[in-house]
Design a protein that fits this description.
By secondary structure, the protein is of the alpha/beta class. It has two domains: 2-83 and 172-268, TIM Barrel (Alpha-Beta Barrel), CATH 3.20.20; 91-158, Orthogonal Bundle (DNA polymerase, domain 1). It is 40% helix and 17% strand. The protein contains ten helices and eight strands. The chain has an eight-stranded mixed beta sheet. Helix 1 (18-27) links the parallel strand 1 (2-7) and strand 2. Helix 1 packs across helix 2. The longest helix has 27 residues, at 85-111. The chain is globular, with a radius of gyration of 18 Å. The termini are close together.
């Protein structure tokens, strides 16, 4: 079984529609995927419907943005109820908060002599229900010729610590965990930074955290043993996925995990 538990679509900052993500997953010979858009589940029903005629199972998921210890931290929620009232409220709050954040980052860029506008960013958005994220701004900077790539945009301007970066103003990490639990999901810490792992793990486990994302395309394999050990020490499930946003991250399916690697997680979700 070939599995990818961390995919994004145009419902947040991915390049493919939810339906196209499913098509790409089928072409990449994936058996199980999780659509985990940032702070929204609006793409999940579309992906589930698209998967009906394909040999792909879609796990309803979300990636909840939070901030704590001076960093932006993300909690994956798996097997959530996409229509949960708590998620609907969070989606609306996230849209408003991210719009304010985007306006602030644009203002900082303009102060540095970079004439980017909100209209430029919105040109990179697929629909009015998309949750604005930094990749939209990065793509706008590329399209306007201010940088040569999305990576350069993050490195020079909008990455954490960059001159135009503004932190999110959302839930704290424990609050993100509780939101997922309230939505009947399994909360998993996405790409946990090693410098915060020991500092925050106990607090998050106490809040109800049930897993760690261990196997990820952009997490060096040399870090996997430490994450595995932390999960084993605290009795947490382990997950993995590509964190795929589009072709810039390679062909969907080139990176995957096996059932053996995430068996306990799948069993917890009834798969």
């Amino acid at each position: 079984m070939r599995i990818d538990l961390h995919l994004h679509s145009t419902a947040s900052d991915g390049e493919f529609t939810p339906e196209a993500v499913v098509e790409a997953a089928a072409a990449g010979r994936l058996d199980v995927i999780a659509l985990a858009d940032h702070d929204t589940t609006v793409g999940v029903p579309l992906a589930v419907e698209a998967a009906r005629d394909r040999r792909v199972h879609v796990i309803p998921a979300i990636e909840v943005t939070s901030s704590g210890r001076g960093a932006e931290l993300h909690m994956l929620g798996y097997f959530v109820d996409p229509g949960a009232e708590a998620l609907r409220r969070h989606h609306e709050s996230a849209r408003t908060g991210r719009a304010r954040r985007m306006e602030g980052m644009i203002a900082r860029l303009q102060e540095q002599g970079i004439p980017i506008t909100l209209e430029d960013v919105m040109a990179q958005v697929s629909s009015g229900r998309t949750v604005l994220s930094r990749p939209h701004l990065a793509r706008a900077l590329v399209a306007a010729g201010h940088v040569g790539s999305v990576t350069e945009a993050f490195n020079r301007y909008i990455g954490e610590g960059g001159p135009a970066f503004r932190p999110t103003e959302f839930l704290d990490p424990a609050g993100a965990v509780r939101l997922i639990l309230e939505s009947k999901g399994i909360p998993v810490w996405a790409h946990p930074p090693l410098d915060l792992l020991d500092k925050l793990l106990g607090e998050l486990v106490e809040a109800g955290l049930r897993g760690l994302e261990v196997y990820r395309l952009r997490t060096p394999a040399g870090q996997w043993p430490r994450l595995e050990a932390a999960a084993q020490r605290t009795g947490l499930l382990v997950t993995g996925g590509s964190d795929w946003h589009g072709p810039q991250h390679g062909r969907l399916g080139d990176f995957c995990v096996t059932r053996e690697q995430v068996a306990a997680f799948l069993d917890a979700g009834g798969l």
